[in-house]
Amino acid sequence: MTEQYVVWTENDTERRALWGSTSGAPAPRRILVADDTMKADEAYRLACEGTALLWRGDFQNARQLSKAVAARMDRKPRRDSDDPAQAFHLHRQTQGRRAQILGMLLIPLDADLSIPLRRAPDAHVAFTEAFGVTEQPSVRSLRDLLGAIGAHEWNRKGVLIPALDARIHPAFGVFSPVRGEYIDLVAAAPLPSTESAFDIGTGTGVLAAVLAARGVTEVTATDQDPRALQCARSNLDRLGYSDQVTVIEADLFPEGAAPLVVCNPPWIPAKATSPIEYAIYDPAGAMLKGFLTGVGDHLAEGGEAWLILSDIAEHLGLRTRSELHAMIAAGGLTVIDRIDVKPTHAKVSDRTDALHAARARETTSLWRLRRR
C-alpha cells in the first residue's frame, strides 16, 4: 500500500508526517494547528467544513474537546423512518458522519510511537500492536489512538467465555466475542462426530476452541485476515488447544471434507466502513452466499453444516427468510434442525437506540444443515 503523508504549516514552516488511518480514510487536505484555547463550537464548525485540527495542547484536553464535539452532534434531531431498511441506512449515515467529524481531531506521534503532548499516556505497546513500527513521525486521529488503547485493554484482560471456563483475548482489529449466545449454541448443539471439524472465518478462534473443548479431535480453523490468524493462534495456544486446532489462511474453506463445518458469518448484508466492521457487515451477503454455495463440497458423508446467524437483517428489511431458505436450497442443502436463542446484550432493551425495534425482535439461530 502506498504511504500517504499529511502536510501543514506551523510557525510559518511547512511540515510533513506519515498519515495513518485504521479505517483507510484519506489524509486530510486542510489542517489547522490547535491547542487548549480551541473552543468546542469552533472545532465542531471546522470539522464539519472539512478542516482537521492537529493538536498541540494537553492530551487530556483533546479528549474533553472530542467529547464536547460529540455532544454537539448528539443534540441534532435524529432522522428516523418507519421503514426498517430506511431507518438502518439513516443510522449508518449518521454513524459515518459522526466518525468523519470526530476523526478530524489529529494527534502527532513521534517515530517511536510516543505522543509528544502534555499528560499523554505511555501507549507505545498498544500502538505497536495496532499500527506496527513506523520509524518516522506520523499523525493519526485521536479516535484511532483511543481505539488502539481500548483494544490493548481488551487483549490484556480478555473476555470470559463460560463455555470454555476461560478467557479469549481479542487483538486489535479482531471482533471481540462479547455476544455469548452464539457461542453457547455451538457449545450445546449435538455433535454429528468428534472426528474432525472446520471452523470457517475463525476470528479470535473462540468457536474452534469450543469444538476442541467438546472433544473434536482435529479442528481446522480458517480466516483470511492476518490479524485474526495471529489472534486465533495465540488464543488456542494459550488455552492448550494448538495440538488439536490448525489455523490456516483461506478464503472460506480448507481443502478436503469434514463431518462438521461451522460458520458464524457477519449477520448484516451491508457495506463495512472499517476492517473490524467486516465481522458485522457482509457486503451483498457475499460470505453467507459463499458458505452456503460451497459447504456441500466440504461435508463428509452424512456430515452437518452449522450456520450461526442472527435474523436481525430480516427485521431491518435487508434480507427475507425466504431468501435465506432459497440460498440454502441453491447450495443443495436441507434444514434438519434449527436451535434458537434470544440475545441478552444491552442494546436489546435500549429504547433510545435507533434500531431498537429490530433488536428487540432479534433471534440468533444455529441452523443444522445437510446435503440433500
UniProtKB/TrEMBL annotation:
- Superkingdom is Bacteria
GO terms for biological process, alphabetical: methylation
InterPro entries linked? DNA_methylase_N6_adenine_CS, N5-glutamine_MTase, SAM-dependent_MTases_sf, Small_mtfrase_dom
Instruction: Give the stretches traversing the membrane.
Output: none
Per UniProt, residues of the Methyltransferase small domain are: 191-308
Q: Which UniProt keywords apply?
A: Methyltransferase, Transferase
Could you cite one Gene Ontology molecular function of this protein?
A: methyltransferase activity
Name by which UniProt lists this protein: Class I SAM-dependent methyltransferase
Q: Which organism is the protein's source?
A: Rhodococcus globerulus
The taxonomy runs: Bacteria, Bacillati, Actinomycetota, Actinomycetes, Mycobacteriales
